[in-house]
């Protein structure tokens, strides 16, 4: 085994945890976790979606998305309605409060990402993302 590859894997895991904690600290004053933000963001992008689709988009299992949805419902950031076309289906959408919260969160996330990626060019970020996607593809094959 190439020790550099092992070290790269270890460093990637460490940096991932640090990035998560950094974002968590930035979002804490808004009473939102990164996981809740991921679900809210997916709801905003898809508009009127289902929990199954949210689980796929956020790459989280259904029970996790269900727990996050319970919290977001209690915070009155999202609402559930029965689908008029298929009454077995529940549609999830943002409330007015949820829309406003996303606007505030987006500003915090943008600032956090700017700070996190300070010193990197757009090209370097794109190359890094491309590399991560290739590694992910290799793992999934």
Automatic annotation (TrEMBL):
It comes from the Bacteria. InterPro entries: HTH_MarR-typ, MarR/SlyA-like, Tscrpt_reg_MarR-type_CS, WH-like_DNA-bd_sf, WH_DNA-bd_sf. SMART domains: HTH_MARR. The keyword DNA-binding applies. It holds the Pfam family MarR_2. PANTHER family: TRANSCRIPTIONAL REGULATOR, MARR FAMILY (PTHR33164), TRANSCRIPTIONAL REGULATORY PROTEIN-RELATED (PTHR33164:SF94). Keywords: DNA-binding, Transcription, Transcription regulation. This is MarR family winged helix-turn-helix transcriptional regulator. Residues 1-137 form the HTH marR-type domain. Gene3D superfamilies: Winged helix-like DNA-binding domain superfamily/Winged helix DNA-binding domain (1.10.10.10).
């Amino acid at each position: 085994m190439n020790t550099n590859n092992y070290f790269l894997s270890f460093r990637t895991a460490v940096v991932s945890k640090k990035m998560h904690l950094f974002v968590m600290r930035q979002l804490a004053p808004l009473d939102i976790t990164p996981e809740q933000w991921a679900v809210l963001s997916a709801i905003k992008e898809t508009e009127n979606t289902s929990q199954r689709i949210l689980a796929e988009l956020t790459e989280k299992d259904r029970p996790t998305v269900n727990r996050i949805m319970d919290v977001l419902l209690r915070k009155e950031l999202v609402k559930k309605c029965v689908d008029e076309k298929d009454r077995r289906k529940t549609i999830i959408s943002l409330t007015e409060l949820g829309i406003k919260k996303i606007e505030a969160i987006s500003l915090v996330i943008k600032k956090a990402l700017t700070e996190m990626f300070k010193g990197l060019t757009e090209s370097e970020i794109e190359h890094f993302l491309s590399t991560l996607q290739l590694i992910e593809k290799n793992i999934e094959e």
